[in-house]
Amino acid sequence: MSRGLRRSGSARVGAVPSRTTSTVILVLAALGFLYPLYALFRFAFWPTAQTHGFTLQHLERLGDPGQAYMYSQLFEGIQNSLVIAIVTVVLMVVFLLPAMILAELRYRALRQVIEFVCLLPISIPTVVLAVGFVPVYQQIWHVTGSVAWVLAFAIGIIVLPYAYRPIQSNMSGLDMVTLSEASRSLGAGWFQTVWSVILPNLRRGILSSALITVSVVLGEYTIASFLTQNTFQTALALLQHADPYVAATFALAALLLIFLILVLIGAVGSIGGSAKRKAA
Question: Which residue range or ranges hold the ABC transmembrane type-1 domain (predicted)?
Protein backbone atom coordinates (compact mmCIF):
# COMPACT_ATOMS: atom_id res chain seq x y z
CA MET A 1 0.00 0.00 0.00
CA SER A 2 2.85 2.37 0.78
CA ARG A 3 4.26 1.76 -2.66
CA GLY A 4 0.92 2.63 -4.22
CA LEU A 5 0.73 5.84 -2.21
CA ARG A 6 4.21 6.85 -3.30
CA ARG A 7 3.37 6.18 -6.91
CA SER A 8 0.14 8.16 -6.80
CA GLY A 9 1.87 11.01 -4.99
CA SER A 10 4.63 11.21 -7.58
CA ALA A 11 2.02 11.12 -10.34
CA ARG A 12 0.17 14.05 -8.80
CA VAL A 13 3.36 16.08 -8.46
CA GLY A 14 4.24 15.56 -12.12
CA ALA A 15 0.67 16.12 -13.40
CA VAL A 16 -0.05 18.92 -15.87
CA PRO A 17 -3.29 20.93 -16.16
CA SER A 18 -5.88 19.66 -18.59
CA ARG A 19 -6.52 21.44 -21.88
CA THR A 20 -9.70 22.99 -20.49
CA THR A 21 -7.96 24.29 -17.37
CA SER A 22 -5.09 25.72 -19.44
CA THR A 23 -7.55 27.44 -21.79
CA VAL A 24 -9.49 28.99 -18.91
CA ILE A 25 -6.30 30.28 -17.27
CA LEU A 26 -5.03 31.77 -20.55
CA VAL A 27 -8.39 33.43 -21.29
CA LEU A 28 -8.60 35.00 -17.81
CA ALA A 29 -5.00 36.21 -18.04
CA ALA A 30 -5.64 37.66 -21.51
CA LEU A 31 -8.74 39.49 -20.25
CA GLY A 32 -6.75 40.90 -17.37
CA PHE A 33 -4.21 42.37 -19.80
CA LEU A 34 -6.52 43.35 -22.65
CA TYR A 35 -9.35 45.03 -20.75
CA PRO A 36 -7.21 47.95 -19.47
CA LEU A 37 -5.93 48.44 -23.02
CA TYR A 38 -9.49 48.44 -24.32
CA ALA A 39 -10.47 51.00 -21.66
CA LEU A 40 -7.53 53.20 -22.66
CA PHE A 41 -8.45 52.84 -26.35
CA ARG A 42 -12.08 53.74 -25.65
CA PHE A 43 -11.07 56.77 -23.59
CA ALA A 44 -8.84 58.02 -26.41
CA PHE A 45 -11.11 57.44 -29.38
CA TRP A 46 -14.64 57.52 -27.89
CA PRO A 47 -14.03 60.53 -25.65
CA THR A 48 -17.36 62.38 -25.46
CA ALA A 49 -21.07 61.75 -25.70
CA GLN A 50 -21.26 63.96 -28.80
CA THR A 51 -19.02 61.55 -30.76
CA HIS A 52 -21.07 58.52 -31.64
CA GLY A 53 -18.41 55.91 -32.24
CA PHE A 54 -14.79 55.98 -33.29
CA THR A 55 -13.28 59.43 -33.84
CA LEU A 56 -9.88 61.01 -34.45
CA GLN A 57 -10.90 64.56 -33.62
CA HIS A 58 -8.49 64.90 -30.71
CA LEU A 59 -5.53 63.84 -32.84
CA GLU A 60 -6.34 66.72 -35.20
CA ARG A 61 -5.08 69.06 -32.50
CA LEU A 62 -1.55 67.90 -33.23
CA GLY A 63 -1.63 70.07 -36.36
CA ASP A 64 -3.08 73.14 -34.61
CA PRO A 65 -0.50 75.98 -34.82
CA GLY A 66 -1.92 77.53 -31.67
CA GLN A 67 -0.96 74.49 -29.61
CA ALA A 68 2.29 73.73 -31.41
CA TYR A 69 4.45 74.48 -28.37
CA MET A 70 2.58 72.05 -26.12
CA TYR A 71 2.89 69.18 -28.57
CA SER A 72 6.42 70.10 -29.58
CA GLN A 73 7.49 69.14 -26.06
CA LEU A 74 6.02 65.68 -26.63
CA PHE A 75 7.80 65.17 -29.95
CA GLU A 76 11.04 66.48 -28.44
CA GLY A 77 10.64 63.97 -25.60
CA ILE A 78 10.14 61.13 -28.09
CA GLN A 79 13.26 62.20 -29.97
CA ASN A 80 15.28 62.42 -26.75
CA SER A 81 14.13 58.96 -25.63
CA LEU A 82 15.11 57.43 -28.97
CA VAL A 83 18.56 59.05 -28.79
CA ILE A 84 19.00 57.84 -25.20
CA ALA A 85 17.94 54.33 -26.26
CA ILE A 86 20.49 54.27 -29.10
CA VAL A 87 23.31 55.54 -26.86
CA THR A 88 22.39 53.05 -24.13
CA VAL A 89 22.44 50.13 -26.58
CA VAL A 90 25.83 51.27 -27.88
CA LEU A 91 27.17 51.42 -24.30
CA MET A 92 25.92 47.89 -23.65
CA VAL A 93 27.55 46.57 -26.83
CA VAL A 94 30.84 48.43 -26.32
CA PHE A 95 31.36 47.75 -22.61
CA LEU A 96 29.15 44.93 -21.30
CA LEU A 97 29.43 42.49 -24.20
CA PRO A 98 33.28 42.50 -24.46
CA ALA A 99 33.58 42.14 -20.68
CA MET A 100 31.30 39.11 -20.68
CA ILE A 101 33.11 37.50 -23.64
CA LEU A 102 36.54 38.12 -22.08
CA ALA A 103 35.42 36.70 -18.74
CA GLU A 104 33.99 33.62 -20.47
CA LEU A 105 37.11 32.94 -22.53
CA ARG A 106 40.08 34.09 -20.44
CA TYR A 107 39.09 35.09 -16.88
CA ARG A 108 36.36 32.69 -15.83
CA ALA A 109 36.81 33.56 -12.15
CA LEU A 110 35.40 37.02 -12.93
CA ARG A 111 32.08 35.70 -14.21
CA GLN A 112 30.52 35.76 -10.75
CA VAL A 113 31.80 39.29 -10.16
CA ILE A 114 30.30 40.55 -13.43
CA GLU A 115 27.01 38.83 -12.65
CA PHE A 116 26.90 40.42 -9.19
CA VAL A 117 27.64 43.90 -10.55
CA CYS A 118 25.07 43.57 -13.35
CA LEU A 119 22.28 42.26 -11.11
CA LEU A 120 22.95 44.69 -8.24
CA PRO A 121 20.91 47.64 -9.67
CA ILE A 122 17.71 45.57 -9.63
CA SER A 123 17.94 45.35 -5.83
CA ILE A 124 18.24 49.13 -5.36
CA PRO A 125 15.12 51.31 -5.71
CA THR A 126 15.26 53.58 -8.75
CA VAL A 127 14.39 56.60 -6.61
CA VAL A 128 17.49 56.01 -4.46
CA LEU A 129 19.68 55.79 -7.56
CA ALA A 130 18.10 58.91 -9.02
CA VAL A 131 18.79 60.90 -5.84
CA GLY A 132 22.42 59.77 -5.98
CA PHE A 133 22.70 60.76 -9.64
CA VAL A 134 21.61 64.38 -9.02
CA PRO A 135 24.96 65.75 -7.67
CA VAL A 136 26.90 63.70 -10.22
CA TYR A 137 24.96 65.14 -13.15
CA GLN A 138 25.25 68.65 -11.78
CA GLN A 139 28.99 68.33 -12.38
CA ILE A 140 28.57 66.57 -15.74
CA TRP A 141 26.27 69.29 -17.07
CA HIS A 142 28.90 71.92 -16.26
CA VAL A 143 30.93 70.24 -19.02
CA THR A 144 28.36 68.92 -21.50
CA GLY A 145 25.49 71.32 -20.90
CA SER A 146 21.96 70.17 -20.06
CA VAL A 147 21.57 67.68 -22.90
CA ALA A 148 19.32 64.64 -22.66
CA TRP A 149 21.60 62.02 -24.21
CA VAL A 150 23.91 61.95 -21.17
CA LEU A 151 21.05 60.29 -19.28
CA ALA A 152 22.15 57.14 -21.12
CA PHE A 153 24.96 56.70 -18.57
CA ALA A 154 22.50 56.65 -15.67
CA ILE A 155 19.83 54.62 -17.45
CA GLY A 156 22.56 52.23 -18.60
CA ILE A 157 23.02 51.27 -14.93
CA ILE A 158 19.28 50.66 -14.57
CA VAL A 159 19.12 48.38 -17.63
CA LEU A 160 22.21 46.32 -16.72
CA PRO A 161 20.20 43.39 -15.27
CA TYR A 162 17.89 43.30 -18.30
CA ALA A 163 20.74 43.58 -20.79
CA TYR A 164 22.94 41.04 -19.02
CA ARG A 165 20.51 38.16 -18.67
CA PRO A 166 19.69 37.48 -22.39
CA ILE A 167 23.37 37.48 -23.35
CA GLN A 168 24.30 35.26 -20.41
CA SER A 169 21.47 32.87 -21.27
CA ASN A 170 22.75 32.65 -24.84
CA MET A 171 26.32 32.07 -23.61
CA SER A 172 25.26 29.28 -21.25
CA GLY A 173 24.06 27.28 -24.24
CA LEU A 174 27.42 27.54 -26.02
CA ASP A 175 30.82 25.99 -25.37
CA MET A 176 32.67 29.20 -26.18
CA VAL A 177 36.05 27.90 -25.05
CA THR A 178 35.85 24.99 -27.48
CA LEU A 179 34.68 27.27 -30.28
CA SER A 180 37.52 29.72 -29.72
CA GLU A 181 40.15 26.95 -29.47
CA ALA A 182 38.86 25.35 -32.67
CA SER A 183 38.99 28.70 -34.45
CA ARG A 184 42.50 29.50 -33.26
CA SER A 185 43.73 26.01 -34.18
CA LEU A 186 42.69 26.82 -37.74
CA GLY A 187 44.88 29.93 -37.72
CA ALA A 188 42.40 32.64 -36.75
CA GLY A 189 43.48 35.43 -34.43
CA TRP A 190 41.55 36.64 -31.40
CA PHE A 191 39.74 39.42 -33.27
CA GLN A 192 38.73 37.14 -36.13
CA THR A 193 37.62 34.47 -33.67
CA VAL A 194 35.38 36.89 -31.79
CA TRP A 195 34.05 38.58 -34.94
CA SER A 196 33.49 35.50 -37.11
CA VAL A 197 32.76 32.75 -34.57
CA ILE A 198 31.64 34.11 -31.19
CA LEU A 199 29.43 37.06 -32.18
CA PRO A 200 27.36 35.18 -34.80
CA ASN A 201 26.51 32.58 -32.16
CA LEU A 202 25.52 35.35 -29.72
CA ARG A 203 23.33 37.18 -32.23
CA ARG A 204 20.07 36.06 -30.61
CA GLY A 205 21.16 37.15 -27.12
CA ILE A 206 22.52 40.49 -28.33
CA LEU A 207 19.33 41.31 -30.24
CA SER A 208 17.13 40.36 -27.30
CA SER A 209 19.28 42.47 -24.97
CA ALA A 210 19.08 45.47 -27.31
CA LEU A 211 15.29 45.24 -27.67
CA ILE A 212 14.73 44.90 -23.93
CA THR A 213 17.03 47.88 -23.37
CA VAL A 214 14.97 49.99 -25.77
CA SER A 215 11.77 48.97 -23.96
CA VAL A 216 13.19 49.92 -20.56
CA VAL A 217 14.47 53.28 -21.84
CA LEU A 218 11.11 54.18 -23.40
CA GLY A 219 9.38 53.45 -20.10
CA GLU A 220 11.90 55.16 -17.80
CA TYR A 221 10.37 58.10 -15.91
CA THR A 222 11.97 58.39 -12.47
CA ILE A 223 15.52 59.31 -13.45
CA ALA A 224 14.43 61.76 -16.16
CA SER A 225 12.01 63.41 -13.73
CA PHE A 226 14.57 63.79 -10.94
CA LEU A 227 17.14 65.17 -13.40
CA THR A 228 14.53 67.48 -15.03
CA GLN A 229 15.01 66.20 -18.57
CA ASN A 230 12.37 66.04 -21.26
CA THR A 231 11.81 62.43 -22.31
CA PHE A 232 8.83 60.53 -23.64
CA GLN A 233 7.44 59.60 -20.22
CA THR A 234 7.98 63.02 -18.61
CA ALA A 235 6.38 64.72 -21.63
CA LEU A 236 3.37 62.39 -21.36
CA ALA A 237 3.05 63.18 -17.65
CA LEU A 238 2.91 66.90 -18.43
CA LEU A 239 0.65 66.52 -21.46
CA GLN A 240 -2.00 64.53 -19.62
CA HIS A 241 -2.94 67.64 -17.63
CA ALA A 242 -3.46 69.72 -20.77
CA ASP A 243 -4.80 67.10 -23.20
CA PRO A 244 -5.43 63.69 -21.61
CA TYR A 245 -6.86 62.23 -24.83
CA VAL A 246 -3.70 62.73 -26.89
CA ALA A 247 -1.60 61.54 -23.93
CA ALA A 248 -3.72 58.38 -23.73
CA THR A 249 -3.28 57.82 -27.47
CA PHE A 250 0.51 58.03 -27.26
CA ALA A 251 0.58 55.88 -24.11
CA LEU A 252 -1.43 53.22 -25.96
CA ALA A 253 0.94 53.45 -28.92
CA ALA A 254 3.94 52.99 -26.59
CA LEU A 255 2.36 49.92 -24.98
CA LEU A 256 1.69 48.39 -28.38
CA LEU A 257 5.26 49.13 -29.46
CA ILE A 258 6.67 47.41 -26.38
CA PHE A 259 4.32 44.47 -26.98
CA LEU A 260 5.60 44.16 -30.55
CA ILE A 261 9.18 44.27 -29.25
CA LEU A 262 8.42 41.40 -26.87
CA VAL A 263 6.80 39.41 -29.70
CA LEU A 264 9.90 40.04 -31.81
CA ILE A 265 12.12 38.79 -28.97
CA GLY A 266 10.03 35.62 -28.75
CA ALA A 267 10.21 35.15 -32.52
CA VAL A 268 13.98 35.56 -32.51
CA GLY A 269 14.26 33.00 -29.72
CA SER A 270 12.08 30.48 -31.54
CA ILE A 271 14.04 30.95 -34.77
CA GLY A 272 17.31 30.34 -32.91
CA GLY A 273 15.88 27.23 -31.25
CA SER A 274 14.56 25.77 -34.51
CA ALA A 275 17.89 26.42 -36.23
CA LYS A 276 19.75 24.52 -33.47
CA ARG A 277 17.32 21.58 -33.75
CA LYS A 278 17.80 21.42 -37.52
CA ALA A 279 21.59 21.51 -37.11
CA ALA A 280 21.39 18.69 -34.59
Answer: 78-269
